[in-house]
Design a protein that fits this description.
By secondary structure, the chain is mostly helical. The chain folds into two domains: 1-40 and 250-331, no CATH class; 66-239, no CATH class. It is 76% helix and 1% strand. Strands 1-2 form a two-stranded antiparallel ribbon. Helix 3 packs antiparallel against helix 4 (95-120) and helix 3 packs across helix 9. The radius of gyration is 21 Å and the shape is globular.
């Protein structure tokens, strides 16, 4: 099989899941008379939500797939946005400098989180809870509870609109693709994901890789924060670990991305997972399903997909056994 044909086939395999889910719910919504699902403004909202949740899921995936569960992602998202936006307002900066300040803030906060984890040598869940509480408190104290506010600043609220949100997404995905597939960092990251102890024994610097992963996660969370404040106009600070709620929509896209990674880039797989989740969420809303039932159904979908991902090797083993049995009978 030619390389171009193989790449095309793998690309089809990556997009087929959200496409099938879209078609199923499109037909179901039309049967129920919900003719606004998946077209016009609703489709644009689906794409926008995909990028927002996709960034958060990617941020979680860079650490969780290496065994580091990070509860501080919401706090990093909020604080990096508060820093970048308020500095931009103070100096009268435009949307691009504001975005860059937010991304830099996210990278710095993520790097600090990584160093704290390495220095303390405590389980990542415990460390991230402490970091989350500190970041939440800083965001509340420095703004006296006001957070960041861009209401009325239309010139700064562009990062949730076309084509800027797509430019932001494509630029970040290109950088992540290069980092994960074309650099020593990417090789080390994939090796650590496959077998951490073996990778360390071969000379891979786990601590350095960990800090870089936290920094990348911080940049992604800052990008999600910029999109969020561009939609809502404000970014209020959280206290009492309320920022942990940001993680709830990251799991399904991440699990789907891990499964689709065998067909291509893991980052694109996560975005396809986020697209699938956004389609499901929009369809549930169009069908009039209550928020409580949406939460239940989404949880069931996550569990089912996790069960499939965890046991997928059994399917491969079954097919191999079936082929061997058929070959033996033919002989």
């Amino acid at each position: 099989m030619g390389k171009a044909k193989k790449v095309s086939l793998n690309l089809i395999k990556m997009i087929i899941l959200p496409l099938v889910v879209y078609l199923i719910f499109f037909i179901l919504c039309r049967i129920q008379g919900a003719d606004k699902f998946g077209v016009g403004t609703d489709l644009m909202v689906i794409f926008r939500t995909t990028i927002y949740t996709g960034f958060i899921a990617l941020a979680v995936s860079y650490n969780l797939t290496s065994g580091r569960f990070d509860f501080s992602i919401g706090a990093v998202l909020i604080l990096s946005t508060i820093f970048g936006v308020n500095i931009s307002l103070q100096f009268g900066l435009g949307p691009v400098p504001m975005l860059m300040l937010c991304l830099i803030s996210g990278a710095v906060l993520g790097t600090i989180s990584g160093f704290v984890y390495i220095i303390l040598r405590l389980p990542p869940m415990i460390v991230s809870l402490g970091v989350a509480m500190i970041y939440e408190a800083i965001g509340f104290i420095i703004t006296k509870g006001r957070g960041a506010n861009l209401i009325g600043k239309e010139e700064l609220l562009i990062w949730s609109k076309q084509p800027y949100i797509y430019i932001l997404c494509i630029a970040i995905l290109i950088v992540l693709f290069i980092l994960l597939n074309k650099t020593q960092f990417g090789y080390n990251t994939n090796s650590l994901r496959s077998g951490q102890q073996i990778a360390v024994n071969t000379g891979i610097k786990e601590k350095r890789n960990t800090v870089i992963c936290y920094a990348i996660a911080g940049v992604l969370l800052a990008g999600a924060g910029v999109i969020n404040i561009s939609i809502l106009g404000t970014m209020p600070p959280n206290l009492g670990l309320a920022s942990i709620a940001y993680i709830q929509n990251a799991f399904l896209p991440m699990f789907i991305g891990n499964v689709l990674a065998k067909y291509g880039d893991r980052n694109i797989g996560v975005i396809m997972g986020a697209l699938t989740q956004s389609i499901i969420t929009s369809a549930f809303g169009s069908l009039g399903i209550s928020s409580s039932w949406q939460l239940i159904l989404n949880s069931i979908i996550v569990i089912c997909f996790f069960a499939y991902a965890y046991n997928s090797y059994r399917i491969v083993e079954f097919e191999m056994f079936k082929q061997k049995k058929k070959k033996a009978m033919d002989e």
